[in-house]
Amino acid sequence: MDMPDTASASSPQRRALVVEDDPAIALIVETILGAAGFAIDLRETGEAALEAAPADLLVADLTLPGAVGGVALSHRLRDRKPDLAVIYMSGAIDDDAGPDGAVAGAALIGKPFRRARLLAAVEEAFASRPAA
């Protein structure tokens, strides 16, 4: 599968901010995206994610502990970095229905998911994100 602009000799490594409170799911996402060439920053809450360094890709659970959920987080981070690619994850929905208030161009995956589905969502999110 062709990955979007992953690390190469001529370009900096892409950064992914993964926001997931379930350690098993976070590890799966970290492993898959790390193997695809992303530098990974794991956070358990939306509040912690707001303190992270800027990323190229946000992968966030819709339901997070604390006051900042996945959709609100994506809006706040997109305000800072308009070309941020976004993937929402949730165990409570399927891949066909997006969450209310989702940022433009966001991909959605239901949990559990397979490696191929996550990588397809990465491609979709990068292809659909707004221009900087």
Automatic annotation (TrEMBL):
Residue ranges of domain Response regulatory in the record: 15-126
Keyword Phosphoprotein: yes
Domain of life, per lineage: Bacteria
A Pfam family hit: Response_reg
Cited SUPFAM superfamilies: CheY-like (SSF52172)
Segments crossing the lipid bilayer: none
Record-linked PANTHER family: STRESS RESPONSE REGULATOR PROTEIN 1, TWO-COMPONENT RESPONSE REGULATOR
Protein's name in the database: Response regulatory domain-containing protein
Protein source organism: Tanticharoenia sakaeratensis NBRC 103193
Higher taxonomy: Bacteria, Pseudomonadati, Pseudomonadota, Alphaproteobacteria, Acetobacterales
